[in-house]
Every structure is written in C-alpha cells, then in structure tokens.
Amino acid sequence: MPANPLVVNVVELVRKPPQRQHVSATAPLEGVVVGDAMVVDGAQAEVELDLESLSDGVVVTGHLSAPFVATCRRCLGPVAGRLDVDVRELYQRHPTTDDAYPFDGEVLDLRPLVREALALELPLAPLCRADCQGLCPTCGANRNESDCGHQPESKDDRWDALDALRDRLVDPQTGESPGPPLGR
Ligand SMILES: [Zn+2]
Ligand SMILES: [Zn+2]
C-alpha cells in the first residue's frame, strides 16, 4: 500500500456497509495557495477524519488544521494564523454529483479533499489585525507604526485634489484657468 497517510485502504470498510474507520494523521502539504495566502509549505496538516461506508460510497467527516501565512491587504505586512476546518464530503465509485470525489472502491485518496478544504478556508482579504491602519497613500508610511501626519480622509485634502484637477482645466482660448480655487 502507498505510504502516504492520506491514501487509505478501504477494502474492508466498503465490504459490508455501514462500517466506520478513523483516520488520524499528520501529512505535509505544499502548494496550497489562494491569492496572497497559502498554507505554510511543508507544514504538517493535522487530519482527524471518520470514514463511514454507505452502499454507494464513503462519507468523510471530521476536522482539518494547518498553519497559513499571508500578506496583509492594507499594510502588506506578514499575516500568520491557523486554519481550522470541519469537513463533510462524499466519495463515490461513480460520482453522481460534482461535489463527490471519485474512488476506485479499494483506495481512498484524501489528499484532494484536504487540499481543497484548506484552500477554501484561506482568507481572501487577509488582515494582520482587524483594525490595521494600512499604508499612507501620500507617503507610504506604515500607519500602524508611525503617524506621518497626512490626513488623506480630511476635507481639506479633498478640496486640494479638486483644485489640482481644476488647475488642469485651462481654457484653450485664453490659457487661463476657469476660476478661483474651490471650497475656500
Ligand atoms: Zn496590516
Ligand atoms: Zn503619509
């Protein structure tokens, strides 16, 4: 039999359904990446799954856990955490739905289930912390670490932007700008 703990011999399990078999394993994962987030390459995923045979397949329920790293979408700093996922999936010899995983009746390959369940749990918009202040759009300073003094949300800066736009609207006939600054 294959040595990977996520590739399981289920010959006995499916012989006389219903029967149960427990899989408790740690298995290294690589290349589980979604956007700027990924399961730590080579980290051991912790797998606790119950396999229950039915007349037409095997139901897999249980829990997965693995460490992940990501890039904060606001400050581009590192994000690290742990994924914890409850799963309930179906393996069928002849899959009747798109959601079912195929198996040959003898060997159940849990690797695609583990990879997909963990990938779905990776954060799509990772944050280093819920109230991350992000980078200053004016000077690029990390506003979690220092107060650069820029106030991009302030009323005055918005008027500055409008004034800058207005200054570019020079009358082609006279070469003059169309009027005094706005909002002052
Ligand atoms: Zn951040
Ligand atoms: Zn700044």
- Sheet having the most strands: 7 strands, mixed
* SSE order, one letter for each helix or strand: EHEEEEEEEEHH
Low-confidence stretches: none
Portion in beta strands: 25-35%
Name the hetero compounds present: zinc ion
Number of beta-strand segments: 9
Q: Outline, from the CA principal axes? A: elongated
- Radius of gyration from the alpha-carbon trace, in angstroms: 28 Å
The rounded distance between the terminal residues' Cα atoms is 79 Å
Structural class: alpha+beta
**Tally of helical segments:** 3
Helical fraction: 10-25%
User: Kindly state the mean pLDDT as a whole number?
Assistant: 88
Oligomer kind: single chain
In short:
With 184 residues, the protein is of the alpha+beta class.
Task: Characterize the structure shown.
- There is one protein chain.
- The chain is an alpha+beta fold and 184 residues long.
- Strands 2, 3, 4, 5, 6, 7 and 8 form a seven-stranded mixed sheet that branches.
- Strand 3 and strand 4 form a beta hairpin.
- The site of one zinc ion (ZN) has 7 residues, from loops.
